């Protein structure tokens, strides 16, 4: 299994000091986190896209290009790209350029977005968000396959034998569809033959098993081979030496994250310690605990989904960089080797 980390570049006040860092420092820390992950032997580093003042990253390919110059082997992915509010040709050119700069490490996780700001900023109709996503991902796949493209659609100007440049270092840029629980989105990923990245932040992960089954069933019925299908699981992670220490240390950041009034789906909700403890139980999807607990949760989910990738989001709720760095090291040295060993069997 591939093990990695991702960030949205959230800028939140530290719950202990009340202090916020600058966007410049946040970007520098993201690049530093990627360098640590690469040197520690993790497989993937992801950067999400938001268009708000409480996030530092609006252009993942720019940040990932900077990261590509200080890393050697780690795969670089968006997490996610809001595909229904961007021109697919520009998106392809940006990630093909990243792919060349990184010697073939670029990937995309495409999503429909959790905020409305991109639609307002870039002039897209929010009521057409699903149709826009469908058209854009199909066009992107065509751009990925051909260096000259003729195409016409409903929401973008037509292309007539257009040269699509530059071509990526890889044969094609890997693309995944990010899904938060919508079976129709999973079916679309299966129909298109993309990877499936499921976001599981709380509750019993078993409820997502039908989503993965829908993806694989649709892909198989469309004619894709099982070996071509990839599933990733993403979630919040905090690792410390003991279970109690991890819960005590992470609760202020996790509560701060959900207390953000702009954070869907629970914005401005005060998370009690009692509720937090329930969320960290052995049957829950929240990865908080000792290294062994994290290993056991990942492997339990692997039994459910048979997934090939696990991505951890750590830097939430104003967590300082030194804590993020320690968690990346623990994930790489104490968790990843055991998970890889068990999933090879």
TrEMBL record:
Species classification: Bacteria, Bacillati, Bacillota, Bacilli, Bacillales
Signal peptide: none
Protein name (Swiss-Prot/TrEMBL): LLM class flavin-dependent oxidoreductase
Keyword Transport belongs to the record: no
Presence of keyword Phosphoprotein: no
Keywords: Monooxygenase, Oxidoreductase
Ranges of residues in domain Luciferase-like: 1-307
Source organism of this protein record: Heyndrickxia vini
């Amino acid at each position: 299994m591939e093990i990695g980390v991702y960030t949205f570049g959230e800028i939140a006040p530290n719950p202990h000091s009340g202090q916020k860092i600058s966007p410049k420092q946040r970007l520098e820390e993201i690049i530093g986190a990627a360098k640590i992950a690469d040197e520690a032997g993790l497989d993937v580093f992801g950067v999400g896209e938001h268009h708000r003042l409480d996030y530092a990253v609006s252009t993942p390919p720019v940040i990932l290009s900077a990261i590509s110059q200080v890393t050697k082997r780690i795969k670089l992915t968006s997490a996610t790209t809001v595909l229904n509010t961007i021109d697919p040709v520009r998106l392809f050119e940006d990630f093909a350029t990243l792919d060349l700069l990184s010697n073939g490490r670029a990937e995309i996780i495409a999503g429909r977005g959790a905020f409305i700001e991109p639609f307002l900023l870039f002039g897209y109709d929010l009521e057409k968000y699903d149709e826009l996503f469908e058209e854009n991902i199909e066009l992107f796949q065509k751009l990925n396959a051909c260096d000259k493209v003729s195409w016409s659609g409903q929401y973008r100007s037509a292309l007539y034998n257009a040269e699509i440049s530059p071509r990526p270092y890889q044969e094609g840029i890997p693309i995944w569809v990010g899904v938060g629980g919508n079976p129709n989105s999973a079916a679309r990923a299966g129909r298109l033959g993309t990877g499936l990245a499921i976001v599981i932040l709380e509750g019993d992960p078993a409820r997502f098993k039908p989503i993965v089954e829908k993806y694989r069933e649709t892909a198989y019925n469309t004619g894709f081979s099982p070996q071509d299908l990839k599933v990733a699981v993403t979630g919040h992670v905090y690792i410390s030496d003991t279970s109690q220490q991890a819960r005590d240390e992470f609760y202020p950041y996790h509560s701060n994250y959900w207390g953000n009034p702009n954070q869907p789906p629970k914005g401005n909700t005060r998370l009690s310690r009692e509720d937090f403890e329930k969320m960290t139980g052995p049957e829950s999807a929240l990865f908080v605990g000792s290294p062994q607990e994290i290993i056991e949760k990942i492997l339990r989910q692997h039994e459910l989904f048979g997934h090939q990738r696990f991505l951890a989001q750590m830097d939430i709720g104003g967590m300082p960089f030194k804590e993020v760095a320690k968690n990346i090291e623990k994930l790489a040295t104490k968790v990843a080797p055991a998970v890889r060993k068990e999933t090879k069997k």
